[in-house]
Amino acid sequence: MMTSWEPVVDYLLENMQKQTYKKDERLPSEHELAQRFELTRIEVRKAYDRLKEMGYVYSRQGKGNYYAGYLEKVELVLSSTDSFSMKMSPLAGRFSTRLLSCERIAWHKDIHERLAVVQGEPVLCVKRLRYLDHMPAAMHISYVREKSFPNIRECLQKNPSLYAYFQGRGIQDIATEDTQLTISTLNTDERLYMKVSGIVPCLMLKGVSRDCKTKEILELSTIIYRGDKFIFRL
Residues in domain HTH gntR-type (predicted)? Predict the structure, then answer.
C-alpha cells in the first residue's frame, strides 16, 4: 500500500528526470507541496527525507531543500561471474569500497560446516561497504577460514578487494555456486551503515566462491544491494 507521501516523491523524481530543476536549485517548499498534495508538512518532510536517502536532495539549515543532481541507476548483471569490483570498474571515480571490519566469529554450525572447519578453528567475518557517488549502495559480508588466509586483515586494509587478495595468493580461477536470490529489508545495523532511516527494498545475493583448481571453498558471501541504486539484470 502506498504511503501518503510517496506521490510527492514520484512528482519530484519525475521533474528531476525531465530536468525541470538545475543542480543546486532550491526545490519546492514543504508548505507549497503540502498544499499541492493536501498533506501535512510532516508528511512532505518524510518525502524529502526519502529523497535525501536516495542521494537526490540535500538541505541547508533554515533555507530549505536543494537538488543534488539526478543520479542514474547503475546496471548490474547478476549472472556475470566477475567480482563486484570488476563489474563496477567502468565507473572509475564513482565507485569505492571501505573495509568495515574483519573479525573472528563465534561457532556457527552452518557457516563452519560449509567451510569444512572443525570446531575451535577460527572463521573470519569480513564486512565491506560499497559506495556509488559517495553514497552507500551495497554491503558485502564474507566468511573465510583464517587458517587459509592468515594475513588477510593487513592486506584488506590496504586494498579491500577480496578478489584481488585471492589473485595475489595465486588463485586465478574462481567459480561461484549455490547462488540464492531474495528480496529483503535492512536490519538496524545495516540501516545505520547504509545511512537509511526508512524502509528501502533490497536485493540479497548469497553464494559460495570455490577455487576451481583445488576445489576448496574460499568464501561464503552475502551481498545486500540497495534497490534504489541499481537496475538488476539476470
Answer: 2-70
